[in-house]
Write a structure and sequence with these properties.
Largest sheet: 2 strands, antiparallel
Number of strands: 2
CATH class of the largest domain: Mainly Alpha
CATH superfamily of the largest domain: GntR ligand-binding domain-like
Strand order of the largest sheet: 1-2
Oligomer: single chain
Number of helices: 9
Helix content: 55-70%
Shape: globular
Mean pLDDT: 88
Length: about 230
Amino acid sequence: MSGSLVPARRRGLADEVADRIRDAIFDGVYVPGSQLREVELAQALGVSRGPVREALLRLEQEGLVRSEWHRGATVTTLSAEDVAELDSLRAALEHLAVELVVERAADDALAALEAVVRRMERAHDEHEMVRCDLEFHDAVYAATGHRRLLEAWQAIRSQVHLFLLTRIGVATGGYLAGIPAEHRELVSALSARDRETALALFAEHRRHAFEILNGRTTQGVRAPGPPPT
């Protein structure tokens, strides 16, 4: 019948396969540039190639995977343009997020940020720290109470995760030691409702990672201190 709905297909298995491949990328099993062969993935996960193909398409939509006709699917390698675009988009979203958190975040939302920093202080390796870093920013966007802003963040979250993995692939000196202190400064500024300091610290937080990816510094995380003037 013209205009009728077609039956929905169950995609649960493809979703699970996508989750497994995504986790493997985030855990460093598949680094940027690695090939993701359908046959090998299907054998490793104990599924047919159909769900793997669907999963790779979903990950391509997230920006984690790129497909080329002569190479197949590979884990995305961020170009200089990719890095610059992600950085500028994060800056725009984060500026609004910080302003909203300072203006109206509830005390329990700020306490959630503190809890993430405490988990950071217990992180055992760089990949765990990256996950904590993403959780911190999840909590920042959740604290805004702005549904569409949170959805905009979630749309680029996987690519930001890849951005941070690329960052630790370039340099890890001081990363585990410095990141918790850096985020504690961010929480302090937000808790104090200090808009200008919070904006400056978040901008510095982004700038350092951006410079590492662009090869301008390899000294790890900056020492905690006053925000830039």
